[in-house]
Design goal:
It is a single chain. By secondary structure, the chain is of the alpha/beta class. It contains 16 helices and 19 strands. It folds into 2 domains: 12-136 and 323-447, nicotinate phosphoribosyltransferase, CATH 3.20.140.10; 197-290, Alpha-Beta Barrel (TIM Barrel). The protein has helices at residues 12-24, 51-60, 65-73, 79-85, 116-121, 123-147, 163-176, 184-190, 200-204, 209-220, 233-250, 266-279, 295-303, 315-318, 400-412, 435-447, and strands at residues 29-36, 46-47, 93-96, 102-103, 110-115, 151-154, 180-181, 223-227, 255-261, 286-290, 310-313, 328-335, 338-339, 354-360, 366-373, 381-382, 385-389, 392-393, 431-433. The strands form 4 sheets. It has a 7-stranded antiparallel beta sheet. It has a 6-stranded parallel beta sheet with strand order 7-6-11-10-9-8. A 4-stranded mixed beta sheet has the order 16-14-15-19. A hairpin with a 5-residue loop joins β14 and β15.
């Protein structure tokens, strides 16, 4: 947990169940698995993210005196239970897919094994952490695919749903392949490169656009990008070209690296600006486009051969506008050594402690996955790795940069149809369920409750 974060960031029913487990003496080991029941219609695969924050949460889990005082004020929990909560720590193990791993429906991406009170208590926050970053990373990776190597910057903080969402969106986007973020605190916390230009208000605050451009570049004293669509984009491009030539001739410390266009017909304006800059011998000045962009708009701009070097993606990334949530669940699959199965209509689970095995073609392209019992031996690479044991991580986690590289490599292994933005119903990725898992489910169904 982050400093100042309370274990009470949870659902009430986690605490009421914890009380019941405690008073009933239910202390046996439970196995919970976190997975997505089905993919959103606009997603061909998802990206696992948020593991580092989940581990930090588990390692720091504890009830502080103020937490216990508040619970006592509810008049719901007896003092003996509150005294017990003061001693609670996470003592279990955690297996997970590495951050950046592509995954599919019904595949467990996190498996928690711990005394049932502990494993149950962490459900809400684990879902909260893993769900959000997986949502954003799964959106961001589509933007990366559409951008064809063009630079991408996260511009979405101001439309994100709160402080934590802004920070974790920047982290998830970088994991998925974005190059930078405009959110300064994300740069400090996660080491993400920072990028930014100026707002229209800076131009408006000056009596002339030309003076605003000159002042901004002079104050920056380095290569920088300027905004040119406040009034007349093409006229501003001409002013930029004139200023850029002057700066180069004088060898001033400030130089113009790029121009940003944030409104209007981005494709048409980018073409016009590129013609102006090239005609004025400013071929090295880049064009950055922003404003209501997503993967589909990026793809359309590049299909039209729009001259662009980088994209700033804001709202539609940080709220994952087309798929803002996943049908993610955290379900009990084993307790006290016995497999458990939920049989609710439309929400049935595959029972038992499981592993996901991934096979590849000889070319390295992914061939298919199988969901099997953890004790089974199946062809392919086991994806769930042991991360924590007895409440502590068993080794250092990869850096965010290493996970970013890992994500890029694993996405490149996906069959090509899955990496497009169009529907691929004719080319589904095969995810099989092993015969032993199916047989276990059938035996539990036959036995009833």
């Amino acid at each position: 947990m982050k400093p100042g974060e309370s274990v009470l960031l949870t659902d009430l029913y986690e605490l009421t169940m914890a009380r019941a487990y405690h008073e009933l003496g239910m202390q046996e080991t439970a196995v919970f698995e976190l997975f997505v029941r089905k993919l959103p219609p606009t997603r061909r695969f998802l990206i696992a993210a948020g593991l580092e924050q989940a581990i930090e949460y588990l390692e720091a889990l504890r009830f502080t005196p103020p937490d216990l005082e508040f619970l006592a004020s509810l008049k719901t929990f007896p003092s003996a239970f509150l005294d017990y909560l003061a001693t609670v720590r996470f003592t279990g193990s955690l297996h997970a897919m590495p951050e950046g791993t592509p995954f599919f429906a019904n595949e467990p991406i996190v498996r928690v094994t711990a005394p049932i009170l502990e494993a149950q208590l962490v459900e809400s926050r684990l879902l909260n952490l893993v769900h959000f970053q997986s949502v954003i990373a799964s959106k961001a990776v589509r933007c990366v695919s559409a951008a064809r190597g063009k630079r991408l910057v996260d511009f979405g903080m101001r439309r994100a749903h709160g402080e934590e969402a802004a920070l974790y969106a920047a982290r998830a986007a970088y994991l998925a392949g974005f190059d930078a973020t405009a959110t300064v605190e994300a740069g400090r916390q996660f080491g993400i490169p920072l990028s930014g230009t100026m707002a229209h208000s800076f131009i408006q605050a000056h009596d002339s656009e030309e003076q605003a451009l000159r002042n901004f570049v002079a104050v920056r004293g380095r290569r920088t990008a300027v905004l040119i669509d406040t009034y007349d984009t093409e006229r501003a491009a001409q002013r930029v070209a004139k200023l850029a030539r002057e700066l180069k001739a004088s060898q001033a410390p400030g130089q113009i690296q790029g121009v940003r266009i944030d409104s209007g017909d981005l494709g048409a304006q980018a073409c016009a600006v590129r013609r102006i800059l090239d005609a004025e011998q400013c071929q090295d000045i880049e064009i950055i486009l922003s404003g209501s962009l997503d993967e589909h708009r990026i793809e359309a701009l590049l299909e039209a051969n729009t001259p662009v070097d980088a994209f700033g993606i804001g709202t539609r990334l940080d709220v994952s506008e087309d798929a803002p949530s996943l049908d993610m669940a955290y379900k009990l699959e084993e307790y006290a050594g016995k497999a458990r199965r939920k049989r609710s209509t439309g929400k049935a689970t595959w029972p038992g402690r499981k592993q996901v095995f991934r096979e590849r073609e000889a070319t390295g392209t992914l061939k298919g996955d199988s969901i099997a019992l953890a004790a089974e031996t199946q062809p392919g690479e086991p994806l769930l790795q042991e991360i924590m044991r007895r409440g502590r991580r068993i080794g250092p986690l990869p850096t965010l940069g290493a996970s970013r590289t890992f994500c890029r490599q694993r996405v490149a292994e996906l069959p090509a149809p899955l990496r497009t933005l169009t529907a691929v119903e004719d080319h589904p990725y095969p995810v099989a369920v092993s015969d032993r898992v199916r047989a276990l489910a059938d035996s539990l169904d036959s036995a009833g409750e």
